[in-house]
Request: fold
Amino acid sequence: MEVKKKLKPSEINANYGDLPQDINSYIKDSVMAKQPEIDLWDFMEARPDKLYEEWAYEVGSDLTTKHEAKTFTRLDIKEKDFFKFMKENRHTCQKKYYEARPYHNGRSELTENFPMKVGYNARNTVEYNWGLYGDSNQQVKDLLGTRKVWEEQIGIDYDTALIRLLAYMPGMILPWHVDNLGNWCRNNKHLNPDIDTQMCDLGPIKRYLVAITDWHWGHVIQFQNSYFPNYKSGEVFDLPIPQPHCSANMGMKMKVTCSISGAKIK
Amino acid sequence: MKLNKSELFKEIYNDLPKDPGDLIKNSQMARHTEVTLEDFLETRPDKEWEEYALNTGADITSEYNAQPLSRLKINQKAFEQFMASNIDVCEKKYYEKTYQKAISELTLNLPMQCGYNHRNTCEYNWGEYGDTQEKLKELLGGRKAIEGLGFDYNTASVRLLAYLPGQILPWHFDNMGNWFKKNQGLNPNLDTMTCDLGDIKRYFIAITDWHWGHVLQIANSYFPKWKSGEVYDIPKGVYHLSANIGIRLKLTASITGVVKEKNKTPPV
Reply:
């Protein structure tokens, strides 16, 4: 497919607005939850995949690039502590579907509504996450390690790091997308973040992935055209920006991971 | 405790409903309420499914290196045309118990308890209703192609499977229930996967090229990025799953039957 124009990360979805104050608004006001089923005949008639694919090429997708994911450190974490946290912090959990949120802008797959048009819906894209509301960012940071672990092992500035603890139940999918660290950039404007160069006043802006649960059947992460290895709890991987990827839990156990966005200091 | 598959699957499948629309009309899954994270953490429905899988041959270490056995000449457009003109004989279903018998993840209702539902397990398939079986055999290249793969043509059974983005076929092993039901006269044995004519096999045929998010996991390994027409063996009794977590439609076919002769059509 011919690529019309390569989009810079700042054009895709970087300049995020404020978060809604009501944490339940994502479900209450969801458009996706009201979307009727796209059946095979609708799909074959309208071919909504064409525009999604065209956009995917604009943001750097191709069918050949490989990515060899390698863990660069392993944190000493206790899976049980994270499950305890999840059970006790329902009030700070952002439950959402894969659709545009009020703070999104730019030309992203979400603002263009591509996933919904190809068949993603409120029963196959449910994500539960923590890190944006209440004190959940601080609590999960502590679960990942002490300030010393952050500074010496993870190598991300502790004070400005933004984590997201992500729980995917069986049957739930995070469709093809690129990361733009919009929430981190909005929260750290004082560091003059430039998502196109992936730099800020403290250093390079990074996104890491921490496996909270061990890999299990059906826990898939496809990055570019390669699959992640069968990871172990505590392993940390770099997720280079802005490279397309998708993930899903098509198994039976909970898939719990944590992303870290922040400035690399080591 | 390892369970004997032939014991679990000794009951023969019920007949298919005469009207393929009944599968959706009578679906329990379509009426099932959402399983939330809170429900899941409270009841831990995954434990029973995992135990069942481990007792029926799954493990967390075995690898499988999938290699194409052959490559058929596929006219992708002809398959799309076939689909569009055979809506009335399409079996649309969700991953739930319908005509299945025996003791399986479906009859135990494990996927639904873990969160699978009618909006993430929707499958469209052809091969069971109307004259679709014969038409599909022809689309794959007819007797020459199917016998070329070594199958007994008359007892070979083809299914064309369409998965839209967002749809998953969860963790399972193939018990070939429909094929066993139709071919009881050949004394098929699920433990040895043999019958009076020879080895019972299931092959996977890619109709569309692999694309982003088209995933097939067998044992603890992912399938390579297949090309349209490539044929792969699905090893007997080995757990696997597949999904379309991408953008494009994922179209595959399977052939189930007796492999009597050597494959005469090695990979192109």
